[in-house]
Amino acid sequence: MSDTQRTKWLRIKVPGFDKHNRDHMRAAIDLANTNTGVDGWEFKTYEADTQEVVLVRRAIMHTVVEEDAPKRAGSRRATRKIELKAGTKPSEGEKIAADFESDPDNAGYYLTDFQPFLGWARLTKLTDPELLCRGAVATALGVKTWEVQVEAEKNGGFTIGLPAKYVPSRHDEKLQEVAETLVGTPGWYWAPKPTERRGRIVPSSLPTFQETIPYPKSLLPKPTLGVIPPLPMGEALADRGDQSNEVLYLKYTDGPHVQLGGTSGSGKSVTLNGLIASAVAGGAELAIADVPSKAVDFDSWRPFVRPGGWGCASFEENAVMLQTLYDEGQERAKVLPRYGAKNLTQLPADVQKTMKPVLVVVDEMTGLFAMQSVPKALPEDHPLVLTAQSGNLARELIIQYLEKIAAELRFVGIHLLTATQVASTSTGISTAFRTNLPHKVLLGARATAGNRKLVLRDPNGAPEVPTHIAEDGGVARGVGIAELEGREPAVFKSFYASDADLIAMLHERGITGHPEGKLDSITRPDPRAVAALFPHLADLQQKQAEAAQAHFDDSGRAPDAWEIDPTTGERLTGYARANAARHAVTEATGRA
Length: 592
Hints:
The protein is of the alpha+beta class. The protein has helices spanning 22-36, 93-101, 128-141, 168-183, 268-281, 315-335, 349-352, 365-369, 383-408, 431-435, 449-455, 467-470, 473-476, 499-508, 519-523, 527-533, 537-550, 574-591; strands at residues 9-13, 41-47, 52-57, 63-68, 79-83, 109-115, 120-125, 149-152, 158-161, 189-193, 198-202, 231-236, 246-250, 258-262, 285-289, 305-310, 358-362, 414-420, 439-443, 479-483, 490-494.
């Protein structure tokens, strides 16, 4: 095709030309037709200073006027330019596309640019995957296919040129759906560049976790004066499979207390143990409150508990331990104004060393808070009645002191790590108390909507554990949702280490704890403080001893009618009852 046939504008010098004279105009057009060999020229203007007539050519039919083949493999796709006939309207795009794309001479070429007001369009050679991608993107955006530019990448993805109608807030979610369901598979993602009106559909895999993520010894915190350092919890799930999961830290500097919920078998104990070891390594003192029947879960940590910080032997000792902590917190608070300080970190270093941060682990809150039924048919001075009443008084004090610690002692370095399966008002855990626990952690890959509502601040806005993780039994254990202050909510998986492994790490640091033979005398609350807060215990212990002795026969067997353990409320018979009573008497008289 000649250069003259591709000419759109033409200048002809015509001295004495009169643009108002029709004969002059017709003569100029005839001259242009003769000189170029093509018809379709129209008068545009006359420039008097150069004595030139300017003409513009309008095609009389749609014609392929230019073909651009690739110079080398992968350098540029083949295109064909179309000259549109005069008067072509935007609404004719689909007809023009159908006409040219159905022509055998244009096999594999598709309309990719349509500019009716400029008088041209372009065909581009596209592959089947490019066609599929272009159609899906155009449908998602609600535009014509030729308004979307698509080019396949070597990695299997696509580069996308976007039309003017593209709006990120309206279209990115739809384009993500295109990426992972229509063009690719779950894990593929849409990566927009709105300012350039471009984007990419990128092949990737779904993000996931290892079946077990060992606790990295290198992350074990070092002591930080005045605060509990950031505690490594596990890994936060990356947005995409081609990104690495990041370490998730619990930061008590961002929020003073934690509420940890966990469904049965979710890995709650492993998570608690990792946080305890991290806090102890970081220089914090440790105190533990738990229902007596579950105290064995924390036996490994007893040597590391602060003096008087093991409240797990009885509800009464739990209450005394928490009262002692609260009183100590009040004394710490009196020190702050002397130095013009608002928290421990603003105190002089030598003063801070005498006031180490304290991590108070409160497990099985439901059991600690739920009141025990008092037998109504028994006399008021019956051991079962007195035991239930004493336990309930202790429970009331436990609730009171935990609520006070959560509300009042956040600035003096006393921090709560609470854990339970069910945290609702029906079990005595008030909404106000939960509100004062800003860090929220829910373990369980299949947590229900009810579980989420009782733990998370924003159960509808927090992410959910992806189905492919929840359905993988090996991966799902230890997975949950973390709503931590100072960062976006995340799906995470806890680090794993056995108690023995964690304690071995502490020993390597020179942290050995109290001697095994002195744990009772060091870690349990002072029995005098217990007696002072519960003066009726001495009388109760005497009655328990008398009742137990009265029900032993000559052979040492107790009659089966005696079924209820006066200390725990459990139903026992025969030798089991006798042994439990004997143990209760020994404990009571030994500590009185």
